[in-house]
Design a protein that fits this description.
23% of the residues lie in helices and 19% in strands. It is of the alpha+beta class and 356 residues long. An 8-stranded mixed β-sheet has the order 4-5-13-10-15-8-7-6. A 5-stranded mixed β-sheet has the order 3-12-11-14-9, with no helix packed on it. The protein has a two-stranded antiparallel sheet with strand order 1-2. α1 links the parallel β4 and β5. The longest helix is centred in the middle third of the chain and has 26 residues. The N and C termini lie far apart (70 Å).
Amino acid sequence: MSETITTTVPEIPKTVRLMNGDTFTFKSNISTTLQKIPVIDAARIWSEDLSDRKAVAEEVRAASREIGFFYLVNHGIDSSYSEKTFEQAKRFFELPEEKKMEVFTGLVPNEYVGFHPMECYNRNGWKHQDLSEAFNWSYDPAYDPNAPADAPESVSIWPRESDAPGFKNTLYAYHAQLLTLSRRLTRIFALALHLEEDAFDEYVRRPEAGMRILHYPEQEHSVDDQNGIGAHTDVECFTIVTQDDCGGLEVLSKTGNWIKAEPIPGSFVVNIADCFMRQTNDFFVSTVHRVINKSGKERYSAPFFFGFDRRKLLEPVEACVSEDNPMKYPVMTGGEYYTWRSNRQKSTSAVGKAEY
């Protein structure tokens, strides 16, 4: 009687170079739900009791150190803002391509605002371009109830009101809500670093606060050949992501495995970005993440990117450097780092300004 022997060929680890210059290796393209992303109750960040705020800050400290991602629930922002934003996103992405290209990001040097066409980028050099399109806009003091007198004018470009009625006002209405939440979270992050609660207040009076809406068709190609958005890290201090119910966001754990950030109704996903990692000398983790849309539906998301005043130096947090642990990064302003990253990403675009 013959015996059949089945052997499993181990996958060869894959190494990818990121836009921030780092490289990372992951074991497999298969994602898992066995590891979980922490869930943090945000209700306490609004408490008048400092001990409540310090308690939630310790949870934020652990999550920011261990995985760089966490869910935020009970954050206080009404779901109608996200619902209206996703409605506008669907209308915008359904516009004819020539209308969307009137606000093509290539028309604005040194900034990441405007429309980023479908299959514009290939972040990891896979066989097929990243299957997504996006529209980005920046901080505008006209929509910030706490804007300082010296706030710069917005650099955003917008479609005509006749082509996208209510688009700008709806998106900025949600942006303003997330701006208020982010300023409060910045105080929680200060406590998480065992600093005074107001340590970063001056850094966020005129913040770097961009946002984007994204549309991901369902992917037909395998995850080995294409991503919705390829593996990357974010630029600013932290990101607040609103995702729909399709799923698809995946986070790379320290063990080199992809973890599914499955949607939790009413939650945000918050992740540490590169500027905070630099300032904390790698104490906070800016974690690699990607999107794979195999849901059978069109996926939409809206990340809000929050960072410090572009004029401010990204100086190291004192508690995160020492004689035995010197600063790993050159000190530069937030604006210098943002410009470098924006131009680096846009230089890889498959759609050139000269075509339009």
